[in-house]
Amino acid sequence: MSIDNLDYKYNPREIDDYLCPDIMVVCDRKHLKGGTYSGTPKLIVETLGPSTAKRDKAEKKDIYEKAGVEEYWIVSPNGNVEIYYLVDGKYVPDQSYMLQSDQEAEHYNAETEIALKTFPHIRITLGEIFEGVGQMNI
After folding, report:
1. pLDDT (0 to 100) of residue 4
2. Helix, strand, coil % (nearest 5) of the chain?
3. Contact, 79 vs 110, CB < 8 A?
């Protein structure tokens, strides 16, 4: 199921604040009410933009960590992917990728597969993540 602009109420018992992640994987539908989710997502992905980069890498990352989101990906249009996993209540950087999409380059890696930790059967290649972004030999 896909819902556009789903708000995430990350601490509904204490505050009535919410965020709208770019991608959010939720499994517990009982916390889904209208356009709001108040449970704990399994995965959140944020795509960086010039106006959101600082907030996504600091403030939102801290909020998702405190909320118990198990897996957090930060994707930058310049070809970078940072993956954090929640370990003992703190995010630990686990994987970091920089797309090299030029097939002639020594470190070509567009076909490198990344699996979701919570759902290891779900895989995506670096090339697929950045498909259509219009990159030139990063």
Report:
1. 65
2. 15, 30, 50
3. no
Q: Structural domain boundaries of the chain?
A: 7-99
Mean residue pLDDT across the chain: 88
Within 10 A of 23 (CB to CB), how many other CB atoms are there?
14
* Residues 110, 92: Cα–Cα separation, whole Å: 24
- pLDDT, one tens digit per residue, over 85-104 is 999 999 999 999 999 988 89
pTM of the model: 0.86
Dihedral, CA atoms, 17, 87, 117, 94, nearest 10 degrees? 100
Domain 7-99 -> CATH class: alpha beta
Q: How far is CA 55 from the centre of its chain?
A: 14
In this structure, which amino acid lies at residue 70?
E
